[in-house]
Design brief:
Helix content is about 40%, strand content about 10%. The protein is mainly α. The relative contact order is 0.12.
């Protein structure tokens, strides 16, 4: 960086006083030793690694994922409190009235390109440095840095490809050297896809399956690249190619991936970077407390307050949709599994007088995903039951536990400054891979030849949560477990994957997973139309509050059907989405108006 240290008058005066032949240019072009430049940085692998840190930092920006917005666009989430009307920043996504000026759409585009620009600096300088290296140690280290940078450039482009303008976006495979180079035209979707697949393939071939040093915890691995490659081919219905990558993750012992015993370890701070995690974004509340909680440079996220109930410091910006609540509430447990029984007092409802045990209120998967008023087995904030500390008022029947700190604080306001959370975002985990592989094996519901193998994979996910397994009694890996005793075929198993297993196992997770699933299956409009015809109502629930006082939680237990009294409130979802959703307009986001306005070469 060049720094002007004297103006011309000062230079002339100094030259006269000193009676020398000094030149103006010498003073005007001195380098500030306290500032870095591209000429004084990018000298070695240490600089590359420092640059890579900025790429990780860019990728953790939650604008890249838009967790609440993308799930409001799908069939998962009601946008905040205030039924029957919602009027917050997430509502346009729920009712499909957003446009190219929506701030979230502009922010997502911007943050993904920031990730790409930072990755390109590492890639460009890494390529240059590697050409000068002669020792294998430096080459290997630089290759791993390059592979991480190309992974992030690849996944950023895959997000752009899957969510913007039918996949046609500007490609940057270089570091812009001047203002004009920032203005690139749209590339065809086929070129964008080929570009990001090449990046992910490079990452797959050059990243380690695991990182052996604890200081590398959280770095991306070849498993993450394999998962994203497999997902990309699955989205294009290339089941054979997708299956190769998924099978590698599932069967290759070098990855050391396995489902965790407790599903809650996938959502809690205590279970971060576990054996099931494949791609995870790390956050902390121990640093940068001076920044605004929503600053893009912060290392915490604000998702906990978005999902928690109001009286524990939450904004309840995203509440489970009615159909989703009911599917969770109706999940059938394997009553042959001891994990589904809890201790009880003799004489209490459902208590076996011999074993002094009773069945759980809800399945493990349900209890660790939702906070329900009548779940009497799973604590909520401060160790109290949800019904004891949360009124479930304002026609709110359930809250997501995912992304919230219910197990570690009494309220989200305990974090100072507020609106900060340390819980990592799990973008890809093994359960997702197992379910995608099951879909590949049945070729999207058209091929029965690998049905039994697909059932095994689905049942691995269900068995972890002690759920009733799929298939005929006495079959599969756990013949003694309780099965639903249904003879599945490829089509019926696909229906189960679409409307039960994937949404219930992966609700609110990943990058737009549910929306992209529904879109690629071609059922978005149909789904909204179906859900808009369903009606629900609430039943009252009497319980004890945290002080032992008897209280009534009005309309807190959701039921499907017509309410018993004509005056009862009727819950309905997706009525406006069913009318407003237009595939031509809403299957992808438009190019943001910020880019349209700034980029004169966009359509050249």
């Amino acid at each position: 960086m060049k720094k002007l240290i004297f103006n011309k008058i000062a230079v002339v005066l100094l030259c006269i006083i000193c009676s020398t032949s000094c030149s103006t240019e010498e003073f005007l072009t001195e380098t500030n030793p306290n500032e870095l430049s591209t000429g004084s940085f990018w000298k070695n692998n240490l600089d590359l690694n420092s640059g890579l840190t900025s790429v990780y930092n860019a990728f953790k920006n939650t604008n890249n994922f838009l967790i609440v917005e993308e799930n409001c666009k799908a069939d998962m989430t009601w946008p905040g409190f205030g039924r029957p009307n919602s009027n917050n920043q997430f509502s346009p996504f729920y009712i499909y009235t957003y446009n190219d000026s929506q701030s979230q759409i502009n922010n997502k585009w911007s943050s993904l390109y920031v990730t790409i620009f930072r990755a390109n600096q590492v890639i460009e300088n890494g390529t240059r440095l590697m050409a000068t290296y002669t020792d294998q140690t430096n080459i290997d280290f630089a290759t791993q840095i390059m592979a991480q940078a190309r992974f992030f450039r690849g996944i950023a482009y895959s997000y752009l490809y899957n969510t913007f303008n039918q996949g046609s976006v500007p490609i940057f495979d270089f570091v812009p050297k001047g203002e004009s180079e920032f203005y690139q035209p749209l590339s065809p979707a086929s070129e964008v896809k080929a570009f990001y697949l090449a990046d992910l393939e490079y990452a797959y071939e050059n990243l380690p399956p695991i990182w052996s040093q604890n200081v590398d915890l959280g770095r991306v691995t070849s498993a993450a690249a394999a998962a994203e490659l497999g997902r990309s081919y699955l989205y294009e219905e290339d089941y054979t190619k997708a299956s190769e990558y998924f099978n590698d993750i599932i069967t290759n012992p070098e990855y050391q991936r396995a489902l965790v015993d407790n599903i809650d370890d996938n959502f809690s701070a205590a279970g971060e970077f576990n054996s099931e995690s494949i791609l995870e974004v790390s956050y902390s509340v121990n640093f940068k407390s001076e920044l605004n909680a929503f600053d893009s440079q912060n290392v915490s996220n604000s998702l906990a307050r978005a999902f928690a109930s109001g009286n524990v410091g939450g904004y309840r910006s995203g509440i489970p949709s009615c159909w989703l609540q009911m599917e969770y509430k109706n999940e059938k447990m394997d009553l042959n599994d001891p994990r589904n029984y809890v201790p009880c007092e003799d004489g209490s409802e459902g208590c076996d007088p011999i074993t002094l045990m009773r069945p759980r209120s809800y399945s493990l998967r349900t209890s660790y995903t939702l906070a329900l008023v009548d779940d009497i087995d799973t604590p909520y904030y401060g160790g109290f039951l949800a019904g004891a500390i949360t009124p479930f008022n304002n026609k709110e029947n359930a809250y997501f536990r995912k992304y919230t700190n219910w197990a570690t604080v009494t309220t989200e306001a305990d974090f100072i400054p507020n609106s900060r959370s340390p819980i990592n975002i799990r973008l890809v985990r093994l359960a997702d891979v197992l379910l995608m592989q099951a879909e590949c094996l049945i070729k999207g519901g058209t091929d029965d030849s690998n049905l039994e193998e697909a059932l095994v994979l689905v049942n691995k996910v269900r068995y972890r949560s002690a759920l009733q397994l799929l298939g005929l009694d006495g079959t599969g890996e756990h013949p003694a477990a309780d099965h639903d005793n249904v003879a599945y075929n490829a089509q019926s198993l696909m229906e189960h994957l679409m409307y039960i297993e994937r949404p219930l196992e992966l609700s609110e997770e990943g990058h737009a997973v549910r929306f992209l699933d529904l879109r690629r299956w071609g059922v978005l409009k149909q789904r909204f139309e179906d859900l808009s015809t369903r009606t629900y109502y609430g039943m009252h629930y009497e319980t004890k509050d945290k002080d032992g006082k008897t209280v009534t939680r009005w309309n807190s237990i959701l039921q499907e059907g017509t309410p018993p009294l004509a005056t009862d409130y009727v819950y309905k979802d997706y009525e406006q989405a069913a009318v407003n959703y237009n595939e031509a307009l809403h299957a992808y986001y438009p190019i943001p108006n910020s880019e349209v306005t700034a980029n004169p070469n966009l359509n050249n």
